[in-house]
Amino acid sequence: MNFWTDKRVMLTGGGGFIGSHTERLLRQRNPKSVFVARRKEYDLTREHDVARLFHEHPADVVVHLAGLVGGILALKTKPVEYCSANLLMNTFMLHHAWKTGVQRFLAIGAGCGYPQHAPTPLKEDDLWNGFPQPDTAPYALAKRAFTVQSSSYAAQYGFKSITAIPGNVYGPNDNFDLTTANVVPALVRKFVEAADKTAPSVEVWSFALMNGTASKKASASSTVMLRTSAMLRPLYRTSNVSRL
Ligand SMILES: NC(=O)c1ccc[n+]([C@@H]2O[C@H](COP(=O)([O-])OP(=O)(O)OC[C@H]3O[C@@H](n4cnc5c(N)ncnc54)[C@H](OP(=O)(O)O)[C@@H]3O)[C@@H](O)[C@H]2O)c1
Question: How many angstroms does the Cα of residue 35 sit away from the middle of ligand 1?
Answer without folding.
Answer: 16
